[in-house]
Amino acid sequence: MNKLSSTPGTNRRFPSPCAQWFLFFAQLVLVFLVRVAPARSQTTNYEFNDSHFHLTNNIQEGPAIRDFLNMMGNKAGRVALFGVPLQQQWSYRVDGDRAPTYYLHSDAPLYYYSFTDAWIAMAYKSLSKEQQARFDPMITGFNPTDMYAADHIRRVLETFPGVFTGIGEFTIHKEFVSAKIPGELASLQNPALDWILDFAAEVGLVVILHNDIDIPLAKDVAKDESQPAYLNQIKDVFKRHPNTTIIWAHMGLGRLVAPPKKHLAQIELVLRDSHNICVDISWDEVAKYFVASPEATKGLADLMQRYPDRFLFGTDAAAPTDQSKYLKVFYQYEPLWKSLDAETSRKVRLRNYERIFDEARRKVRSWENAHVPSVSSN
């Protein structure tokens, strides 16, 4: 007789094979509920992931990262986190005691501020592992006209392994901004940009690229064959870098770069011809175009439903001071969310971000393991 069954005061027996299987199955279910369900529940409960967020502004000020976590609350699940790579100079000869805080507040120039990457990295590293999981920091503090820019990106990865997921938002052509940066004008035809994008492909970094599709205040031209000023150039960039995951910020639009004629058809051609390209719909200055009328909203919704895996939502909030300011663009797009079918809406707001940034995290960590001594030796 076994010891368990002969223990005084008990009637215990070894369970039958059927009962053993039932207990084993019950334990598996319990493990699933404890370990898997909470993660899925958390993802389900958020309303969006933010593919485009600036923790700091043009004078490198912004909320503490823990204060921003409170702004995210139960609305934003994950956020692509970066600063602003361009610092607004406070020139006393230009502005006197009136300190500018934005690039439109002064005629003084802008300059590249590389310390932004270290600032973002240290803010991220100050968080717990659970909090870090909600952020994908991005490298932005480089000059895209500099052939050494790719070396800057590499050094940042080597200095802060385990932190960054991508590069950007960085700018080539942007209304007002481009002309305020001294030195060489950024160009889509500069080999320095090709080196940056090639290195991003090697590492697996996601790229967030700002490039206006047209010049500011461009007048519509009646000829069907007319093209926005930078459309063909950026299409060439995309074709030259088929292995680089690129998010074209703001669908190429801006404050004074309105949708050109056939804009959505032009975006559709980009998506059709370059399978590595996605677009984000961030910035209130962009949202205004697509909620201006039911027809504008429907046009974008129809395009999204034809290419549901290629659009991401982002706020483009910069150093918000409270949750209402942070959520402004998300609620501005309410007509769009109502126009999309449930599956497309979920992909644009949540799933596309997770797919793209999860893959980038995996690739970048793998590259770091192979190339960064402090990582590979652990």
What does this structure look like?
- The chain is of the alpha/beta class.
- The chain has a domain of 240 residues: Metal-dependent hydrolases (TIM Barrel, Alpha-Beta Barrel), CATH 3.20.20.
- Strands 10-9-8-7-6-5-2-1-11 form a nine-stranded parallel beta sheet, with helices on both faces. Strands 3-4 form a two-stranded antiparallel sheet.
- Helix 8 runs parallel beside helix 9.
- The radius of gyration is 25 Å and the shape is globular.
Whole-angstrom Rg = 25 Å
CATH architectural grouping of the domain at 137-376? Alpha-Beta Barrel
Structural class: alpha/beta
Number of strands: 11
CATH class categorisation of the domain at 137-376: Alpha Beta
| CATH superfamily placement of the domain at 137-376 | Metal-dependent hydrolases
- Average of pLDDT: 89
CATH topology of the domain at 137-376: TIM Barrel
What proportion of the residues is helical, as a percent range? 40-55%
β content, as a range? 5-15%
N-to-C order of helices and strands? HHHEHEEHEHHEHEHEHEHEHHEEHHHHH
Largest sheet: 9 strands, parallel
Separate helix tally: 18
C-alpha termini separation: 52 Å
Q: Order of strands across the widest beta sheet?
A: 10-9-8-7-6-5-2-1-11
Approximate shape: globular
The unreliable regions are 1-42
